[in-house]
Amino acid sequence: MSISQDELFTIAARWLATARTELRRLGHDARVMVRATREQWKTSPQFRAHVIREVLEGLIAALLRGPRAAVLWLITALARLVELAASTLDEGPELGPTF
Question: Does pLDDT of 46 surpass 70?
Answer without folding.
Answer: yes
